[in-house]
Every structure is written in structure tokens, then in C-alpha cells.
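Lab notebook, bench 4. The sequencing result for the construct came back, and we need a structural model before the next group meeting so we can plan mutations. Quick request posted to the team channel:

Model the 3D structure of this chain.
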Amino acid sequence: MKLMFASDIHGSLPATEQLLARFARSRARWLVLLGDLLYHGPRNALTAGYDPAQVAERLNTLADRIIAVRGNCDSEVDQMLLKCPITASWQQILLERNRLFLTHGHLYSPENLPPLAAGDVFVSGHTHIPVAKRRADGITLFNPGSTSLPKGGFAPSYGMLDGAVLSVRALEDDAVIAQVEITP
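Done. Here's the predicted structure in C-alpha cell form:
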């Protein structure tokens, strides 16, 4: 299965348009959104091209192909604009040999994991910093970074699962920022 991941769009229409163009070219089955979709949040500056209503309209064109979780900046008002459900704190995707635990990262985090087993993948956003690594206990940590407000000197980014490879990729040029193979 091929999946695309994105987090922390924070209402940026240009970032959304780039992401959706990448999604169309990727041939991924699902677009997994890890929260903080429309609102910039009180601690963040406005994103370039800040237009939450238009971001919602663009995401609504793919509502039947989106799996989403709620971020700390998402609210019921945001859900009123979006056709896809975004209010779950977490979701899971079961692959043939792995479980992907999806959350934004403000409730569960790499420092506060839910019960997971070796081979499971903890997928989160929130920090705006890309991560793709396996811990000594066999749990994989994956964060696609942020499409609009990257931190740590990283480029705006998104994530892909293609077969057994999880990669964080630069939104602009598709360069691999980080990658890891998930364990069978």
C-alpha cells in the first residue's frame, strides 16, 4: 500500500496546493493528515498564503481519500468546513505486518507512547521536525515535518509509505530528508 502523510498545514493555501499536486503524482491510495490543518495557532505566525477557507475547499475535493486526526489547533469550527472527519485524537491503519498508530503528537508523543509492540509505527506531527527512525525496542517513529511552518532548519515536507519504506520528502523538490524501512 502507498500512503502519503502531511501535518501542520496551518491554513497555508500554497502549501496545500503543492501537497495536493504531489499527492496526485504519487499515486498514493490515501492522504493521511496529522492535524493542525486550518488554523495557524496562537504561537505561530501567519503562514504564507494564509487562507483556511480555501484550504478546506481544496481538501474537500479529496475527502473520500483522506484519513485524519485532530491537532491541538483544530476545532469543531474547522470540522464544520471540512467534509472528512478530523476530530479523532488518534487512528490506526493495519497493514499486513505492521500497525500504524496515527496521532498529532500533543497527547501521545515519542516521550509518551501508547501501548505499542515491536514492528508498530508511531506516526505523528506537531513538532514540525521530520523524523524517520527505529528505536531499539523495534518501534518506528515517523514524523513528516510541516508543509508550511518547518522548524529546525528543515524544508517544508511531507511523508510517504511506499512498500516497506517510510520517507520524509521535501515538498519543493521531493528530495529525501529522512527514511527508514519498517520491520516485518
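The chain is about 15% helix and 30% strand.
Will bring this to the meeting.
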